[in-house]
Amino acid sequence: MLTPLPAFSDNYIWMLHDGLTAWVVDPGDAAPVLAALQSQGLALGGILVTHHHADHVGGIQALRHVLRGPVFGPARERIPGPFTPLHDGDVVELLGLSFRVIDVPGHTAGHIAYAQQGVAPDPLLFCGDTLFSAGCGRLFEGTPAQMSHSLARLDALPAATRVCCTHEYTLSNLKFAAAVEPDNIDVLNHTRHCQALRQNGQPTLPSSLALERRINPFLRCSEATVVAAARRQGANNYSDNASDNDSGEAVAVLAALREWKNRF
Ligand code: ZN
Ligand code: FE
């Protein structure tokens, strides 16, 4: 069972449980986790961390007194310890499920994602602040080339992948997506759908990769409409640094989109 626990103003702490034991992802705050464990009679079996930002790790120490298992986190970042450091390709087993670690630098330098392995019809992806619905994370520690490569690795996962992002940014991201692609009917339809969800106090997540491929401009950097929009924002400025033309252009487009979004 998968539940997003709202935290702060727009974070979600994803909780996965089997009726007895729960795991949480990126507990920036302990209070919502403790409340959920208590009300559902669950034990805390472990914690997954995607990156070092306070709104993702701030609750870890306050959860230690109820924690019965490991804290897993990115090897290349500083996480409130002790924790088990993970590298690209490592596999984590929890609640009978198996997750593969994917390095996704860009938002932070050592950011990792957890992608469910095996035969699940709709595998889970915990992607932290790398991939959002209709958007991507800000480049605090990484380059557009790194983010472009990281998003491409996530985009290579199965279409039915359930995308569990850590922030409820969907409606503001969709506003930007509509500015990039005013004629994208999927963006329009999904905006209406998400407005209704939010009016009922419901999360717009998880999303799916299939949907993100249709609505997320940061996964559509090779679409002619997105390339043209990015060029109007000065994407050419970046192509000087391109190593090869195809991926170079996608990186230039992503860089222009990201800067445009920063001031949007
Ligand atoms: Zn972050
Ligand atoms: Fe965050």
Described by the principal axes of the CA atoms, the overall outline is: globular
Please write the string of helix (H) and strand (E) elements: EEEHEHHEEEEEEEEHEHHEHHH
Beginning-to-end CA distance, first to last residue: 36 Å
Hetero groups: zinc ion, fe (iii) ion
Q: Total helix count?
A: 9
Helix content: 25-40%
**Beta strands, count:** 14
Beta-sheet strand percentage? 15-25%
Which structural class fits the helix and strand makeup?
A: alpha/beta
Q: Give the uncertain stretches in residue-range form.
A: none
Rg, alpha carbons: 18 Å
- For the largest beta sheet, what order do the strands appear in spatially? 1-2-3-4-5-6
Main sheet overview: 6 strands, mixed
For the residues shown, what is the average pLDDT? Answer: 95
Q: Summed up, what is this model?
A:
The protein contains 9 helices and 14 strands. It has 264 residues and is of the alpha/beta class. The radius of gyration is 18 Å and the shape is globular.
SSE order and pairing:
Elements: E1 2-7, E2 11-17, E3 21-25, H1 30-40, E4 43-48, H2 54-57, H3 60-63, E5 71-74, E6 84-86, E7 91-94, E8 97-103, E9 112-116, E10 124-128, E11 131-132, E12 135-136, H4 144-155, E13 162-165, H5 170-180, H6 185-199, E14 207-208, H7 209-215, H8 224-232, H9 245-262
Helix pairs in contact: 4-9, 5-6, 8-9
Bound molecules: zinc ion and fe (iii) ion (FE).
Structure description:
- The protein is an alpha/beta fold and 264 residues long.
- It has helices spanning 30-40, 54-57, 60-63, 144-155, 170-180, 185-199, 209-215, 224-232, 245-262; strands at 2-7, 11-17, 21-25, 43-48, 71-74, 84-86, 91-94, 97-103, 112-116, 124-128, 131-132, 135-136, 162-165, 207-208.
- The strands form 3 sheets. The protein has a 6-stranded mixed beta sheet, covered by helices on one side. A 6-stranded mixed beta sheet has the order 7-8-9-10-13-14.
- Helix 4 packs across helix 9 (245-262), helix 5 runs antiparallel to helix 6 and helix 8 crosses helix 9 (245-262).
- The protein is globular.
- The mean pLDDT is 95.
- The structure holds zinc ion and fe (iii) ion.
- Fe (iii) ion is lined by residues 53, 55-56, 129, 166-167.
